[in-house]
Records
---
Amino acid sequence: MLISRLGMGIIIPGMYTPQAGIFALGTSSHAYLEFDLQDAKRSDAFAAALASIREPRTTTGGVNFVIGFRPELWSRLAPDDIPAGVAGFNREIRGADGFVMPATQRDALVWLSGSAYDVVFDMARSVVRTLGDVGALREETSSWPYQHDRDLTGFIDGSENPTLLDAPAEALVAEGLRGAAGSILLLQKWQHLAAEWEALPVAQQERIMGRSKRDSVELENRPADSHVARTDQDTFGHIFRRNMPYGNIANHGTVFAGFSAEQKRLSGMLESMAGLVSGQRDALTRYTRPLTGSYYFVPSVESLRLLRPG
C-alpha cells in the first residue's frame, strides 16, 4: 500500500518515521558527503543507490545517516512526497555591503555521524563505492565537537534549540501533509576569520553575538545587528540546529545544519543575516565567510525504502 504514496500520488493515512540521524546527538565524528548525478537520465539508479546504503551490522561503533536530496530531484522522484514550493539553493544571496552567500547546490547529501572517526571514514568510503558511476563526490567535509557544546568562536552553539522531545514538531513535516516525517535541511560551511575575531575584546564579541560568552545568556540590550537579533526564532520560526566545527589550525569554521518543517524559516533567517530584511547585516558575518550553501529534502524512512531495488 505504501508504494501508492510515491507512485500514484496518494497519501495513505498512517505514521511515517523520520531518519534517525536527524536527532542523533552526542556523536563525536562527522562526515558530510555531497554528490551530483553523473547522468541526469540515471536519476532512478542514483536514488536507488542512496536508498540502499546500510549501516554497519554491529551495535558497537555504529554510524548514523542523514540522506537528503536536492528538492527538485526529489520532486521528480516523488512529486507528492514534498511540501509545495521547496526549492534548492540555486541562486546566491546578495546582501548589504557587497556581502554574498554562495549557492553551491548539489544533488544529494549523505551525512554520517558516529562515535569514532575510523568507523565514519570506512563507512564514507563504502558510500562512495556504493554510488559508483551514478554519483560523483563534489564536496567532502569532516567535523568534530569542540569543548562539548561550543563552536570555534568560543560561544555555546544551539542555545535556542528545542529539546529532543520538542524538536520533531519544529523539524519534521507533520503527519497528513505531503512529505510527512521529512525535513528541509539547510547546509552551509562558514569559514571563521579567526585572527580578526580573536583580536576583539570579549565584551565586543558578546555584542556581536547578542549573548554572554561564558554561559550564553541573552543580552538584555542586544544590538539590532547582533547574530541573535538577526536570526530571532520568535520572528522567523523555530528550527533544529546540528552545527559542528570543521577544519584545521589554519582554516576552520562551522558547518551549519538547520532542520525545519518549513523552508521559509530558514530562508528568512538567511535574508535577515544578509541585511535584506531590515537593511542591517548580521554583525557576525563580518567575522565569518560562507563558503557553501545547499538545501536538501530529507525524506522519511518509508519513502527511502520504496526506492530500493527489488
---
Amino acid sequence: MDGVLIDSNPLHRKAWAEYTRRQGVEMTEAMQRRMYGKRNDEIIRDFLGEHLDEGEVFAHGAAKEALYREMMKPQIEAALVPGVREFLERHRDMAMGLATNAERANVEFVLDAAGLGAFFRVIVDGHQVVNPKPHPEIYLTVAEALGAAPGECVVFEDSYAGVEAGVAAGMRVIGVTTTHEDLAGISLSIRDFTDPALETWLSSETEKA
C-alpha cells in the first residue's frame, strides 16, 4: 500500500520525526531509511528501545499512525501514485489482493478516503501474519485466499523488504520506484502506473500464460 497505492513515505518520515521528537529522540537519516517496508512493532523497538513491552509498543504505534492520518487527510488524493486508480479500474476483473505491513487503521483510512477498497478481494495487514515482510508469509496468505498459485501472481512493491518477500514467495515482482531506484530481483521497474512499459509487460506475460 504505502509507496505503491499512495506515495506516503515522505509524510511517514515527517510523522515519525515529529513523533520520536516528542519522545525525546531526534530522528536521523539512517533511522528513516531503516523504517521502509517494516512493521510498526519493529520500527518502534528500533527507534524507542527494545525494553518496551507489547502494550507500550502498540500504544506508540497507534499514536504515531494517528498523527500520520491527521497529516495525510487533507492531501490523500494528491498523494495517490499517478495512474493507480485508472490501472485498478482497467484490471478490476482480475483477482487483486492487498498485502501490507501497515496498521489496519491506516489501511482502512487510505482505502476509504481514496475510494479504492472495492478493487481488492482480499486484504491482509502486517498484524494478521506471524512474520512480516521480508518473510513471504503475507504474500502466500493473500495468494491462498485468492485461490492463486504463487507463480501466477504479480506483486507491486516499492521497498527492499517487500521485493524480498515477493521473490521469496515465488512471485514476479514489479518495482515501483517511489521509494528506491535500485530494487534488485524485480521483473520490471516502473516510475508509476502511467509508465507505458507496464501494460506492455503485462500483455506479454498474459500471452505466455
